[in-house]
Amino acid sequence: MVAELSQVGKVALNAPWLGWRRVITLSADCNPMNLGNWQLETVSGGEFRLDGGAMFGIVPKPLWERIIPADDRNRITLQTNCVLARDGNHTLLIDTGYGGKESERFIEIHGMEQGAPLLDNLYTAGVSPEGIDFVVFSHLHFDHAGGGVVRDDCNALVPAFPNAKYVAQRLEWEVANSGSPELAGNYPPENLRPLEEAGQLRLIEDGEEIVPGLRGLVTGGHTAGHHALTFESGGDKAIYLGDLCPTHAHLRRMWCMAYDMYPLETRRKKPELLAQIADNGWTVLFDHDPVMAGCCIEQDHKREFAISDRLNVL
Question: Which residues on neighbouring strands pair with residue 167, listed in sequence order?
Fold first, then answer.
């Protein structure tokens, strides 16, 4: 089940609070993770930068900066680890990164890549937009749903994956389209309305199976309708936690984002779900970790959770 992260270079993973430090060599050759019938592979939806303080909430900078250093604008480097999943019957994506529709000012502030990173990286992986039959969103913020819609040759907004059914959690969709003034800017309508207008939208309930071996589990916390996505096949399970636990540096209960709409819910649900993952030996998949797409964890009486020796990255 061990695979390699599809990025090049050597990265020092320094997390003393997790009780480990290791240097791993990251290969340019990506070996997908085999999980029963599923083949899982990380495809980047684009690197970007966010304020480090916002990413770690109440955690003081001297603590989080030891793990993920900030630049001179207090931004930390993050990844959009979209998951390309294939089982012989379906070729689907979990999340779509931020896409290529943002303004130059927005791109500069967030250190985003130009163009359409996800589509470029899918092309490199030999996958066409027409070959995707499901796109599943963990939630609908710009860095997860932005790559699902593109501008065509006439500058009209259209789904990036013309043959795909786009799957969102029902409550998340309702909140995103509520027009609530306190959510202004959280859910750009240009990322959402074209999906419904094209008749490609499917809304699901908590625990509903999307395709055989993949279902959503509402976690709340980050947003009201945020859900984790669970792959299960052949007795193995991998869980894409979305922004409930975006990086390996967020494994502890109190290490949460200021972006969380319901932080107390995150503090309750995250350790509960991580304990279940640890006790059953399941694989964690991180959406924003710049050096680690996934791992196995174990409970630790001092550090809450520690990354086990069975480190799996896609």
Answer: 136, 202
- Residue 41 structure tokens: 């592979």
Cα–Cα distance, 136 to 202 (Å, whole number): 9
Q: What are phi and psi of 260, to 5 degrees?
A: -65, 130
Stated pTM of the model: 0.90
> For residue range 201-212, what is the model confidence (pLDDT) as tens digits?
999 999 999 999
12: which strand partners? Answer: 23
Question: Cβ distance 285 to 293 under 8 Å?
Answer: yes
Which pair of structure tokens corresponds to residue 46?
Answer: 């684009």
Q: What is the DSSP letter of 261?
A: S
Whole-number percent of the chain with pLDDT over 90: 85
d(CA 245, CA 242): 6
Beta-strand pair 33-35/165-169:
unpaired
Q: What is the pLDDT of residues 221-254, one digit of tens each?
A: 999 999 999 999 999 999 999 999 999 999 999 9
Surface-to-core class of residue 234, CB atoms within 10 Å of its CB (0-12 exposed, 13-18 middle, 19+ buried): exposed
Q: Is 144 left (phi over 0), alpha (psi -120 to 50) or beta?
A: alpha
**Second CATH level (architecture) for the domain 9-307:** 4-Layer Sandwich (3.60)
The Cα 98–Cα 139 span in angstroms is 12
**Cα Dmax for the chain:** 58
Q: Which two tokens stand for residue 191?
A: 């990322």
Instruction: Give the start-to-end residue ranges of the domains of the chain.
Output: 9-307
